[in-house]
Design a protein that fits this description.
It is a single chain. By secondary structure, this protein is α+β, with helices and mostly antiparallel strands. It has 3 helices and 5 strands. The chain has one domain. Helix content is 18%, strand content 13%. The strands form 2 sheets. Strands 1-2-5 form a 3-stranded antiparallel beta sheet, with no helix packed on it. It starts with 7 loop residues before the first helix and ends in a 7-residue tail after the last strand. The structure holds iron/sulfur cluster (2 copies). One iron/sulfur cluster binds next to helix 1 and helix 2.
């Protein structure tokens, strides 16, 4: 799947993300992204031109975000949800203005 950088995933889903990129996915350095707000690592404000600040980190392939995909026949297929969102960009524009809301995970609660 080719991500069209619409931002839907990174504002809508609850997902586990690394907190401090310098430390990587180690115990105590992962946090929940609550959803319905922008992920702390999302860069940009315009659907279709958004990017992830941690995509290039060597540990990124270990994260849940890296395994996100869709049911498809070809890895070269553009994201169907992205095509829809880019045709209706206001679906994500409002959420892009909502600051990151972290959800502290149980293992970090002590
Ligand atoms: S870490 Fe990157 S890919 Fe994952 S939700 Fe945040 S901005 Fe999106
Ligand atoms: S919905 Fe598709 S195009 Fe939009 S951010 Fe998610 S994977 Fe990328």
């Amino acid at each position: 799947m080719i991500c069209l950088r619409c931002g839907h995933c990174c504002v809508s889903y609850m997902v586990i993300v690394v907190d401090d990129p310098e430390k990587g996915p180690v115990p105590g350095n992962v946090v929940g992204h609550e959803g319905n707000c922008r992920c702390k690592h999302l860069v940009g404000d315009e659907p279709g031109q958004l990017s992830c600040a941690v995509h290039g980190r060597p540990w990124y392939q270990e994260t849940p975000c890296a395994s996100h995909g869709q049911i498809e026949q070809s890895p070269e297929a553009p994201c169907r949800m992205g095509e829809y969102v880019l045709a209706h960009p206001d679906l994500v524009r409002d959420l892009l203005r909502v600051p990151f809301r972290p959800v502290r995970l149980t293992e970090d609660a002590s």
